[in-house]
Amino acid sequence: MLTTAPTQITWVFSKEVPLETMTVTLIDATGVRSELPGSTHSNAGNMEVVTPLPPLPPGAISLRWRLVGPDGHPISGRVDFTFSGLASSAATPAVPATAPPTTTPVAVVAPLSGQGDGSYSTPTMVRWILRYASYLAIMAIVGILLTSAFVWSAAGKHPPLRRILGRALFFTALLGFLQLLIVASDVSGKAPWASFGSITPATTTDAGMAFALRTALASSMWLVIFRARIVHSEVYWTAVSLPGMGLLATWAFAGHSRSMRWPAVGVVTDVAHHAAAAAWIAGLAIVGWIVIPRERPNPLAATVRRFSRVATISVGVLVATGFVQTVRLVGNPSDLFDLNHGRFLAAKLVALVIMLGIANSNRRRLEQRLIDPVGVGRHVGDLRRAIVSEFAIGLVIVAITAAMVVSPPSSTTTGPGAPGWVGSTSILHSVVVIPERLP
Asked: I want to staple 331 with a disulfide (CB 3.0 to 4.6 A). Which of 50, 277, 411, 432 is the partner?
């Protein structure tokens, strides 16, 4: 309850706030909504935002804030107070009054209609579908290239795989643009198809810029592979490797790896993690559905052994980088069961353990059989079934990964001197309402 009309409100956050993506909506006692322009960073730094307030009518006031974090997550919250409209005594000095939030601000990925600010938010399921499809497309691109380089040299020239590669590049560019529109929608509060004018502020976030770069990189890679006539293999592999690494890096910048603690470590481990996953899962698909039915026993055994070595290295990289990412993204160990992001991570770890167990059992059972080139043909069916089972679990792991990126992380990076392990997703620390000075 305030007896003096405030002239401004200061939002104190635990992270730097991009003004380009922050909006504040005022709802007065009559239900009239108005967007408040003029928010600026305070003299204390970019973690504090000052929003000037217009003259307020007496009654209940609700201030709703919304912004898009660097990782692309829309975040919102509100502060409610009542202005009595009663004049204070001139002899009583006006002092700043602290108004604590009535509702804890939290990261949200569900529609914001529940917040009452009238903004539009793309449903979580749509975000997940786009993430999952993007993951599959990029894994197909990187997986085909890695398989061609280290397992089966004919993969890059195989007609069905080239068609898959071309379509994967097309859909990667298209899905990247659609995801950029969703970030623009989160910034504007409008539907994606009405948010083309917000693309520029959307690219001020790490996620928005990553989606824009993903579209450009996929397009440039398509030109290199399908239109350029590069004769020298070294030049060709350099031309496809650089945008390929860039595509993997957009995963890190469009997710939690760049925005959470230890960002440099997060980006490097994220690129290695997804490269290993692409080499393993896409390699399984290529070996299981194309190499095994077409290759003769002798080259088949050699190809499977090469893939086995690549898969072993990939597993080691996945386990090591997964451990690092778990430490980065999970705050309190109990968050593995208390928060959605933690639950998804726990499910991913369980699925990975199952996949590793199946893979290890299959490798040991089939390794001896592949030693005999004459009898290897009798075991082709077992080999395909083993690979298909691993591939199916790999698709489940990718689906869980997409859900993890859509959900808010279990830990947040707080300001200097704050504890390193924080279980809350709230980034708003306090709110200061400055009353108007009386004459």
From this structure: 411
Return the domain boundaries, the chain: 6-109+425-435, 124-406
CATH 2.115.10.20 fits 6-109+425-435, yes or no: no
Taking the C-alpha atoms of residue 346 and residue 351, their distance in angstroms, rounded to an integer, is: 9
Please give the single-letter amino acid code of residue 268: V
Sheet holding 45-52, edge to edge: 40-42, 45-52, 6-13, 428-435, 97-98
Beta bridge partners of 8: 52, 434
Tokens 């692409």, residue? 278
pLDDT digits 0-9 by tens, 239-297: 888 999 999 889 888 876 766 677 788 888 888 988 988 888 888 888 877 877 666 66
222, 170 contact by CB (below 8 A): yes
Q: What are the φ and ψ backbone dihedral angles of 21, each rounded to 5 degrees?
A: -110, 0
| Pair 118, 260: CB distance under 8 Å | no
CA dihedral 183, 185, 188, 191 (to 10 degrees): 180
CA distances 263 to 41, 102, 296, 320, Å, are 24, 32, 47, 17
Distance of CA 153 to the CA centre of its chain: 33
Euclidean distance between the first and the last CA atom of the chain, given in angstroms as a whole number: 21
